[in-house]
Specification:
The model has no long low-confidence stretch (mean pLDDT 89). Strand 5, helix 7 and strand 6 form a beta-alpha-beta unit. The strands form 2 sheets. Strands 4-5-6-7-8-9 form a 6-stranded mixed β-sheet, sandwiched between helices. The chain has a 3-stranded mixed β-sheet with strand order 1-3-2, covered by helices on one side. By secondary structure, the protein is α/β, with parallel strands linked by helices. The chain contains 11 helices and 9 strands. Helix 2 packs across helix 10, helix 7 packs across helix 9 and helix 10 packs antiparallel against helix 11.
Length: 295
């Protein structure tokens, strides 16, 4: 309240001196993170899928820590380059385990040159993080076009309400062109549908129908998760944690567990249950990643 930050939200465009003041209020620890990176780390930890993390990797301390963390679980990354700095997100954790994100600006290091056709042409899926769509929609459009050219499937994680509020029409275009998987929580999906309903364009209204046909996994926090498509509706209850230590990365951990099963053709109930097991474990530790599997 003192800093007028929205709890459990992504607060961007904050002045650097405010962030320095926030850091002085508690103990700060440098840990690798980022929604898609956390998800990728979870998939790598499970050890059954191979992935390439497309990014603009800096040669600074944070970039080195970031790269090492993903390479340790078997992921491939591009070489680091000089002239850029690693984007940092300040995660504020309250005593009850909830988190709020605070940043000065969104990164712009990632360019079309970082989208590797040599990688995409050999891959089965392209996973897109909502925050990349928020900050650099042109890069996402470029990657999606390349993926569709190579008949690669595309999954989108909405990531945060901020993404929906600012990129609803971009999301609508992705869905209208044929999205293979949508990953979101209940609030993000509701916000997307409501935003589209408030748009008069008939084409956008048609997209709302496409949303209900798109394969999607929706999380409801302690209420569990549901996978839905034209032919399936599978519900999986969550594993409840009475006193979570840190909820940062719970959604990413769930997505990692689910996607590992889903992309390998496991039964939907099995994939959802694995997602819950990963999320259940990560909220019982500080940080957004697991150091070992919970099963």
């Amino acid at each position: 309240e003192r800093y007028h930050l929205k709890e459990n939200a992504f607060n961007s465009g904050l002045p650097p001196d405010l962030l320095a003041d926030l850091a002085a209020q508690g103990s700060a620890v440098l840990v690798p993170g980022g929604g898609l990176a956390n998800l990728s780390h979870g998939i790598g930890l499970l050890g059954r899928l191979r992935g390439f993390f497309m990014t603009a990797l800096a040669e600074d301390e944070a970039g080195t820590v970031f790269a090492r963390s993903l390479k340790q679980v078997g992921l491939d990354l591009p070489p680091a380059r000089d002239g850029i700095s690693t984007f940092r997100i300040n995660v504020l954790i309250t005593p009850d385990g909830h988190r709020t994100f605070a940043v000065t600006h969104m990164p712009a290091n990632f360019t079309k040159a970082d989208v590797k056709e040599s990688v995409i042409s050999k891959s089965r899926w392209l996973l897109i993080e909502g925050f990349t769509l928020l900050s650099q929609p042109d890069i996402v459009a470029y990657a999606v076009s390349m993926a569709r050219h190579h008949r690669e499937k595309i999954a989108l994680m909405l990531s945060d309400y901020t993404v929906v509020a600012n990129r609803a029409l971009d999301i609508a275009r992705l869905i209208d062109d044929g999205l293979d998987l949508l990953v979101a929580n209940e609030g993000e999906l509701h916000a997307l549908l409501q935003t589209l309903k408030d748009t008069d364009a008939q084409q956008v209204q048609d997209v709302i129908m496409r949303v209900h046909e798109t394969p999607r996994v929706i999380t409801y926090g302690p209420g569990g998760a549901v996978f839905m498509d034209k032919n399936s509706h599978v519900y999986s209850p969550a594993k409840i944690v009475a006193s979570p230590v840190d909820t940062t990365g719970a959604g990413d951990a769930f997505a990692a567990g689910f996607l590992d099963g889903y992309l390998r053709g496991e039964e939907l109930a099995t994939a959802l249950a694995q997602g819950h097991a990963m999320a259940h474990a990560v909220v019982q530790t500080v940080g957004a990643r697991l150091s070992k599997l919970p099963f």
